[in-house]
Amino acid sequence: MDIANSDFSLLRTELIKKLTRIEEILKNVIFTFEQDRVQLLSDIDDISKRFSESVSVASTYFLNSILSEYTNHYKEISFAMHHLSSKRQGALIVIQREDLIAPLISQGTPIFAKISTPLLESIFLPESPLHAGAVLIQGDMIISAANVLPLTDQIFWDRSFNARELAAIGLSERSDALILLVFDNGLTSFCLDGHLYPFSTT
What we know:
It catalyses: 2 ATP = 3',3'-c-di-AMP + 2 diphosphate. By secondary structure, this protein is of the alpha+beta class.
């Protein structure tokens, strides 16, 4: 088994373990529903927390699965995301899939370099002139940086979205691109088909 398949297998095993535990708690909740109503509230709170953890693991699993289909350097991207997240440095990375991205964006600075963790991190340093924009990745190459993405036309009433989120959603509504985000608070998400999904870099 190669390293990539091993990583996927570990994530899959962890996800199954978490979901199985939730299933066990749910069965117990149903069985004791009328017997201990105070415990029921505690169990529901526990289930909610476990579901949140499961969403993060599931997102990480599927993100890496998708990334590995379109670049051999998905580990370098993952490492960069982890480092940027730990340093709370914002980032926006577009992975081109089947749809051409160039016609949809205001193109920034050409890079045309092989993907590497140090290069991705250096692009998003706060003092870098390229940090305020998106990196475009195609296959195993960083094509360009400081690209401007189209913003979504959606109006969100439940919470405010920052510029990176609006740009990620906007591009993903117009293409099949996979867009990775690191927020200034260290949280990470990916965007696909107009939807944001949180994931863990740990």
